[in-house]
Every structure is written in C-alpha cells, then in structure tokens.
Amino acid sequence: MNPMSFMNLFFLFFRYWLAKVFLVSFFISFSIQTIEAQPSVLSKKKAKKEVTELMKKAEDHFFHERFHIALRLFNLVIQQDPENGKAWRFAGDCYLQKRQLDKAKEYFQTAKEISKKPEKEWFRLGQVFILQGNGKKAIHSFEKALEHKKNIHLAHFYLGLAYYRFFQDKKKTIHHWEIYRKHTKAKDKRKIEQALEILRQKNYKIPVSTKTMDLDNHSNTPIN
C-alpha cells in the first residue's frame, strides 16, 4: 500500500469515528434534556390538579355559605393561578357577602379584565355600586352586562331599582321591570306585578329614599 492510500484510509476512518462520536453525544444530550424536562411537565400537571381540587373545595364551601373558608381557598387558587378569573369572581362574591364592598369591587374589576366574557363581572360590579349608592355607575355596569349577554334578565330588575332609587324615574323603572316580569319565576312575578300596578298610578310619585340598600338574596344568585 502506498503512503497516499494509507493516509486516505486513515482520514476516512477518522471522519467515520468523529461522526459516530457526534451522533452518540447528540443522543446523550437529547436524552438528558428530555429527562430534565419531564419533572417540569409533571410538576405543571400536579399544580393544575391541585388548583382544580382547591376550586372544587372552595365552591363547595361557598354554596354552603361558609364564605370565610371559601375566600381563603379562592385566594390560594389565585396565588397558584393568578389568571384564574373564576377564582377572582368567586372571591369577590365572598367579599360582597361579607359587605366588604371595596374589596369586592377590586376583585370583580380584576376578574373583568381577565374574562373574555365579562357579563358576570359587570353584573356583580353593578350590585356593588347599588350598595355603595352610586346609581350612575350601577346603571352603566348593568347595561354593560346586558351588552355582553342579553338574557341576564335580573339585570333589568336592578336597572329598574337604580332608576327608582336614585333618579325617581317612573318611566324607565316601569320599562325595565316589565322586561324582568316577563322572564321571572312565578313566585317573584306577583311581587313585581304589584309594584308595577302602583307605579302606573297617575298620581303616584316615587319618594326620595334615604334608607340603606340591601340585595336580600340576590347577591348570591347564579347568573345565566
């Protein structure tokens, strides 16, 4: 074998060896990255499962009116998942039940900013403004709720209430309560019909009220 043939054979073998080393190194590196990524994927799945379980527990406490416990759990969800709009809204509901209106408003505002369909958040903000005595903002909030979802019929009840309470506007009160009457349940229909009968009386004037507002059971009412 002449020297040139030997050198060519040597370089050919050397190139083959380098390629083999490169491939082995690549597969080892890829395997290490895959192994390192697995705990991250598993931890994300675990965290998501924990959030789901916390939400279930929190909602259960909420609907059993254990608002203090529910609030703590909803805030834990928010710590783990800050973009969980449902947790922000439910936590706001807890503050609303406790009549901590500024905190409720803060949580509903955050939930509204996160939500792609914020009709529920606008509705709850309207309830907060009713309780705070801000008729103009209450009306704006309920109208925004109806813009996003037309069949929130309870919003018409509150719009009528706001026009009655804060502006003594018979025409608009009757308009919204008529809409509410058409869609409300039988047990509430008679009450609203009685109120409408009084409002339609020609000589009836809405009195200026100074009493503190309350929402009765509507602050915990599910919104369609």
Question: Secondary structure elements and their pairing?
Answer:
Layout: H1 3-63, H2 67-80, H3 85-97, H4 101-114, H5 119-132, H6 135-148, H7 154-167, H8 170-183, H9 186-199
Folded structure, characterized:
It is a single chain. The chain is mainly alpha-helical and 224 residues long. It has a domain at 121-224: Tetratricopeptide repeat domain (Serine Threonine Protein Phosphatase 5, Tetratricopeptide repeat), CATH 1.25.40.10. It has 9 helices and no strands. Helix 5 runs antiparallel to helix 6 and helix 8 packs antiparallel against helix 9.
In short:
With 224 residues, the protein is mainly α. It has helices spanning 3-63, 67-80, 85-97, 101-114, 119-132, 135-148, 154-167, 170-183, 186-199. The protein is elongated, with a radius of gyration of 31 Å.
Observed structural traits:
single chain, 224 residues, mainly alpha, Serine Threonine Protein Phosphatase 5, Tetratricopeptide repeat
The rough form would be described as elongated
Content of β-strand: under 5%
Order of helices and strands: HHHHHHHHH
**What's the gyration radius in Å?**
31 Å
State the low-pLDDT regions, or none: 9-14
* Main CATH class of the domain at 121-224: Mainly Alpha
CATH superfamily of the domain at 121-224: Tetratricopeptide repeat domain
Distance between the termini: 90 Å
Q: Describe the biggest sheet?
A: none
Topology, number of strands: 0
Number of helices: 9
Which structural class best describes the helix and strand composition?
mainly alpha
CATH architecture of the domain at 121-224: Alpha Horseshoe
User: Can you give the helix content as a percent range?
Assistant: over 70%
CATH topological fold name of the domain at 121-224: Serine Threonine Protein Phosphatase 5, Tetratricopeptide repeat
Mean pLDDT: 84
